[in-house]
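Troubleshooting: if your tokenizer reports a length mismatch, compare your output against this known-good record of 120 residues.
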Amino acid sequence: MPVNIYSHLTPAPPELTKKAFSLLDKVKYSGGKIRRGIHGTTNAVKNGDAKLVYIVSDLEYPEQVLHLKVLCERDSIPYVCVPANRQYGIVNSAAIIDIGRARSPYYRFLKELDMARRLL
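Known-good structure output:
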């Protein structure tokens, strides 16, 4: 039986995924800044600008985004694995750079993300 080495990129539960995309909307419309794509997200993480990283878990070639999880864990940057969603422009990854006026939803989401990780 072959071993799935990409099992750690399992998407977050549906309710958490919905809240993650809702947060992305709130940040976008409250004057925040978002970087999309592997290159932009990687640069944001390496520069320490990323506040939250979205990693797409259902890519055809998941090795494209495996380094993001390692970088986020190394630099203690929160990340969430989500399914691809072209409505929000997330094809492979995205990073919130500035949360704008969406401070309350951002911190609420981080608390829920932390609780979900503890349960897993």
